[in-house]
Write a structure and sequence with these properties.
This protein has no helices and 8 strands. By secondary structure, the protein is mostly beta strands.
């Protein structure tokens, strides 16, 4: 399955050590997902762009996904759905 970068808004909580932790990911102006768990944070390259940044492994309910921060921007690697391959 192909993916593309989708820039998202993120609400952060900054702890007393100055570490920023995402608490919600804003998919659109009307859709926001609360983060249930931060599983991992590491400095690495994005699989799509190859840009270096922080990759957060997050859990939203039963879904685990990555949230990337490069510079001042946040993004997810959105799945591209092919409408011709969808079942009726």
């Amino acid at each position: 399955m192909q993916r593309r970068k989708r820039y998202v808004g993120v609400t952060l909580k900054v702890d007393t050590a100055g570490v920023a932790l995402p608490i919600t990911v804003d998919w659109s102006e009307k859709i926001s997902y609360p983060v249930d768990e931060i599983i991992d944070v590491r400095h690495t390259k994005g699989s799509i762009s190859g840009e270096e940044g922080l990759r957060y492994t997050l859990r939203f309910g039963n879904v685990t996904t990555y949230l990337w921060k490069t510079g001042k921007f946040w993004y997810v690697e959105e799945k591209i759905v092919d409408p011709d391959r969808m079942l009726p």
